[in-house]
Every structure is written in structure tokens, then in C-alpha cells.
Amino acid sequence: MVVSTPLIGVLALQGDVREHLIALAAADAVARPVRRPEELAEVDALVIPGGESTTMSKLATVFGVLEPLRERVRAGMPVYGTCAGLIMLADKILDPRSGQETIGGIDMIVRRNAFGRQNESFEAAVDVTGIDGPVEGVFIRAPWVESVGAEVEVLAEHGGHIVAVRQGRALATSFHPELTGDHRVHALFTEMVRAAG
Ligand SMILES: NC(=O)CC[C@H](N)C(=O)O
């Protein structure tokens, strides 16, 4: 059997793109930034970084990549969103800014900035289904998942709130594994991408 190395894009409109590129390379994927529809068409999977979901939503519209993103996710492209990226993958935001759009793909309702503002950022050990031993979760103005639909698997909770989920080929975390040097969540995603073939 030939095991090919998946090509994983990182949505590079805004946010901590570089850290994800490094984490993916460490998790044995080939990774590159994606901004335009032509670039999206070339990748097997996509990571949506942390940053600011309202800005990301605006830029996705400006770059003409929002609809193509929705189509690829609907068609089953593996996708992983961290923090603002989790918000972008939510079918519904509880407290959106006016005009804020998401890509959708995960049947969940999210609450932005749920864990508090920037100065209330924190780190916590989080047990994630499918990963041996706790992951150091970095939470920066992090959202939590308020509720999920029947198709969504909850992978982690913190303080009684859902912070990691998976629905089919879509994975999302409230926290930022790309900032810790621990690449196990990226390895989990890379495995999902390989399994999707
Ligand atoms: N670190 C982050 O990605 C913060 C997310 C930000 N609070 C938002 O609403 O998009």
C-alpha cells in the first residue's frame, strides 16, 4: 500500500497561521497557507487558525473564499478549527457580531469569548478522547460550545463546558494546541485526513 503524505492547507486570512504550519509539519503532513479559491482547490484538508472570527469572516467574503469553503466542507473535506476556527465551523453563533458569517459544518451552537476577555486567558490540562494523557490547553478569549446536535461527538470538556468536538471529518477545539509544542491534536487530525484517503 502506498501511504501518501496529505497536503493540508492553513486558512491564512488572519490569525496564528505560522504556528499551525509548524505543528502540521511536525505531525508529518505537508502544509501550506491558503487564501484564494484556487489554493483551496489544491489541498486535501484545511486548518482554520485562531484569531478573530469576525475579521476572518469579513476577509473570507472579501477574498471570495467563503462559499468555496462551505462547498468543500459540505463535500466532506477534513477540516480542523481552533478557537476562532471553531467558531467558523459552527452552524450557529449564539452572540454573533452583526453580519458575522460562518462556514458551518458542525451542528453546534457556540458562545464567543465565553471564558472571558484577553486578560482572562489561561492554560489548563484537558483530557481529549483519542489522545493518551492530558493536552495542555491554551485558552485565549476562547469560545465554548453551548450545545451540540446528535451527530456531534464531544471529545473534551473543561469546567463543565464543551471545548472539543468532532462531527464526521470536522474537528474543532476551543483551545490552541499549536502554541504548546505538543503536536498530538495535529497528529489526530492528520490521521483523520489519511483515513479520508
Ligand atoms: N484566540 C481566539 O481565536 C479568539 C477568538 C475570538 N474571541 C473570536 O471571537 O473570534
From TrEMBL:
<feature type="active site" description="Nucleophile">
    <location>
        <position position="83"/>
    </location>
</feature>
<dbReference type="GO" id="GO:0036381">
    <property type="term" value="F:pyridoxal 5'-phosphate synthase (glutamine hydrolysing) activity"/>
</dbReference>
<keyword id="KW-0663">Pyridoxal phosphate</keyword>
<dbReference type="GO" id="GO:1903600">
    <property type="term" value="C:glutaminase complex"/>
</dbReference>
<dbReference type="InterPro" id="IPR029062">
    <property type="entry name" value="Class_I_gatase-like"/>
</dbReference>
<feature type="active site" description="Charge relay system">
    <location>
        <position position="176"/>
    </location>
</feature>
<feature type="active site" description="Charge relay system">
    <location>
        <position position="178"/>
    </location>
</feature>
<dbReference type="GO" id="GO:0042823">
    <property type="term" value="P:pyridoxal phosphate biosynthetic process"/>
</dbReference>
<protein>
    <recommendedName>
        <fullName>Pyridoxal 5'-phosphate synthase subunit PdxT</fullName>
        <ecNumber>4.3.3.6</ecNumber>
        <ecNumber>3.5.1.2</ecNumber>
    </recommendedName>
</protein>
<comment type="similarity">
    <text>Belongs to the glutaminase PdxT/SNO family.</text>
</comment>
<comment type="pathway">
    <text>Cofactor biosynthesis; pyridoxal 5'-phosphate biosynthesis.</text>
</comment>
<feature type="binding site">
    <location>
        <position position="112"/>
    </location>
    <ligand>
        <name>L-glutamine</name>
    </ligand>
</feature>
<comment type="function">
    <text>Catalyzes the hydrolysis of glutamine to glutamate and ammonia as part of the biosynthesis of pyridoxal 5'-phosphate. The resulting ammonia molecule is channeled to the active site of PdxS.</text>
</comment>
<dbReference type="Pfam" id="PF01174">
    <property type="entry name" value="SNO"/>
</dbReference>
<dbReference type="GO" id="GO:0006543">
    <property type="term" value="P:L-glutamine catabolic process"/>
</dbReference>
<dbReference type="InterPro" id="IPR002161">
    <property type="entry name" value="PdxT/SNO"/>
</dbReference>
<dbReference type="InterPro" id="IPR021196">
    <property type="entry name" value="PdxT/SNO_CS"/>
</dbReference>
<keyword id="KW-0315">Glutamine amidotransferase</keyword>
<dbReference type="GO" id="GO:0008614">
    <property type="term" value="P:pyridoxine metabolic process"/>
</dbReference>
<feature type="binding site">
    <location>
        <begin position="140"/>
        <end position="141"/>
    </location>
    <ligand>
        <name>L-glutamine</name>
    </ligand>
</feature>
<keyword id="KW-0378">Hydrolase</keyword>
<dbReference type="GO" id="GO:0005829">
    <property type="term" value="C:cytosol"/>
</dbReference>
<keyword id="KW-0456">Lyase</keyword>
<comment type="subunit">
    <text>In the presence of PdxS, forms a dodecamer of heterodimers. Only shows activity in the heterodimer.</text>
</comment>
<feature type="binding site">
    <location>
        <begin position="51"/>
        <end position="53"/>
    </location>
    <ligand>
        <name>L-glutamine</name>
    </ligand>
</feature>
<dbReference type="GO" id="GO:0004359">
    <property type="term" value="F:glutaminase activity"/>
</dbReference>
